[in-house]
Amino acid sequence: MSISSSADTAEWARGWTEGRTVLVTGGTGGIGRAIAQCFRDAGATVHATGATDAECAQARSNDPSGTIRYDVLDVRSNDAIRGFIGELGDLDVVVNCAGIIRRGQERDPDVFDTVVDINLNGTMRVCEASLDRLAANNGCIINIASMLSFFGGGLVSGYSASKGGIAQLTKSLAIAYAPRGVRVNAIAPGWIATPLTKALQDDPARAGPILARTPMARWGAPEDLQGIALFLASPHAGFITGTIVPVDGGYAVT
Questions:
Q1: Sign (positive/negative) of CA torsion 219, 222, 225, 227?
Q2: Domain range enclosing 129
Q3: Which residue among 119, 193, 209, 213 is least crowded, i.e. fewest CB within 10 A of its CB?
Q4: CA distance 155 to 134
Q5: What is the pLDDT of residue 8?
């Protein structure tokens, strides 16, 4: 299915998504925004969070329908997360997209600590705070890993460490949460054209080798993550937990 058929993807999922409540952290832009939109288009009630008022305001301005609720959430704060989730009522799906990257700065221990705290610890905080609500609805969690869950990144040691941790956290929570009826999986995007990768897209010396190694010979689009997110949240994935699914145009196999 091509990314041009995202409306068809949402319609395909509507039967089991309509009426469900979905939380997408980091849902104001890039991959998170695309995933929030596909669940919205499939009939879910979607709550998306961002790190700042400005991020949320920009997301609202880009979504004139007003059908996704955008709120600020600091994933570094247990109290903020628990308070936010406590106000949601029912919860069926959690997608953990909140994350940062500080390319070239992450060997500084303070920067490293911040990146890991948001990307990895923040995901753990949201998962644990959501567990009771998800268990009540046989819900599921979808974490956002990365190709750097599998490869090193010399300029992004904190990001790589956090995404490696996401892969292991996904497997571990899949075991821990299975008795509660909650599935936990992760998507590992490859090189996706988002603001986080814009500097690389604009640098021919970096973009050239990336595209040369990617068998599908293009940058991914955020919409390329929509179908797998909807599938992992669906009854068709009812016996799938603890998986990390690459969506990378074949980058990892070359």
A1: negative
A2: 3-244
A3: 209
A4: 37
A5: 74
Assigned domain for 75 exists = yes
Give the active site residue among 70, 159, 177, 251: 159
How would residue 6 be classed by pLDDT, with cut points 50, 70 and 90?
Answer: low
21-71 tens-digit pLDDT: 999 999 999 999 999 999 999 999 999 999 999 999 999 999 888 899 999
CA angle 102/107/108 to nearest 5° reads 85
The 21-25 sheet, strands edge to edge: 68-72, 45-50, 21-25, 93-96, 140-144, 183-189, 244-247
First to last CA, the chain: 23
User: Can you give the CATH number for the domain in which 16 is found?
Assistant: 3.40.50.720
Q: What is the pLDDT of residue 15?
A: 86
Nearest to 145 by CA among 179, 120, 111, 176: 120
pTM attached to this predicted model: 0.95
Could you tell me if residue 250 is inside a domain?
no
DSSP 191: S
Per the structure, how many domains does the chain have? 1
**Looking at the domain assignment, is residue 249 inside a domain?**
no
252 occurs within a structural domain: no
Tell me if residue 70 is catalytic. Answer: no
